[in-house]
Amino acid sequence: MGGGLASHELAAAVSEAGGLGTIGILAPDSLRAELDEARRLTSRPLAINLIVPFARRGHWRVAARADVLVTHWEMRPRRRAPNVWVHTVGSAQEARAAVAAGADAVIAQGIESGGHVRGTVPALDLLERVRAAVPPGYPVLLAGGIAEAADVRAALDAGAVAAVAGTRFLASEESRAHPAYKRRLLEADETVLTELFGLAWPRAPHRVIPNRATRRWLREDPRGPAAIRALHTALSPAARRTPLAVQRKLAARARAGPLDLAPPAPTDAMPAATIETHPLYAGQTAARIHDVRPAAELVRALAP
Ligand SMILES: Cc1cc2nc3c(=O)[nH]c(=O)nc-3n(C[C@H](O)[C@H](O)[C@H](O)COP(=O)(O)O)c2cc1C
Q1: Using CA positions, which residue lies closest to atom 21 of ligand 1?
Q2: What pTM was computed for the model?
Q3: Where along the chain do its domains lie?
Q4: Which end of the chain is more exposed for a tag (fewer CB within 10 A), N or C?
């Protein structure tokens, strides 16, 4: 979970409890500092996640120091670091491309997932398609809809080697989501798949909890008004060159106008007002999550 949501506290707690904790994308210097801090808290393996359209040379250099590199959002992936590499896919075609590029494993990410969503079908259906497309025994992980031990059991029974959970760990004590964002997650009974917060990252569906921004802009079309999506596409080359740290600062002043609808989600370092103007990423499991718990307890509760 990028942009500061999953930092060293969460990643280290998950790894220490027996999972594989993942630090989400930040500016390269911050990412390096987070990895160093996490290493101080645990000697177990740690992953770094990079969203490929935002990753620059400095990111790949830092990511190479993690035990595992997890990548997201690339149709034609390629290996950029020597460590264990896991690529997130949304179709059999993408899975085949990842295998051909030398990925060590793939994550089949279903449509119920929170955050940016690669899959267009439920995770268990995608898992079946992906497993049929990759060589026998090739490791496939499942992401989407994991909130309880029974979900993990179903994923493993269907042939996944592991389950990936985002939303469940957003509601952990260690996640750096703004406290009001965590409260919205506990109260949520629905999510929406949209392209609304697409400045710098257009045509990339993401699942969020409704807030004032979605209520204002999504009356006609859940993807967002066509004019805003066109604007995001036009501005994305420039917006993408804006460093992530600057994007986060700009976003913190946002008022949910068309030029503010950018990817950063509210962290505990952002003003409370951003709860209504920024994407509250969450998966469909939001409807089943009613408590904020320590990450280690969540890892133990998810073990089937
Ligand atoms: C708040 C949030 C932020 C996310 N950010 C990222 C990210 O930066 N990179 C990434 O690869 N996936 C990201 N995801 C997707 C997760 O990696 C994972 O695929 C997804 O959470 C699985 O579905 P679930 O939410 O039902 O557990 C994010 C998910 C959430 C909920």
Answers
A1: 166
A2: 0.96
A3: 8-172+290-302, 192-281
A4: C
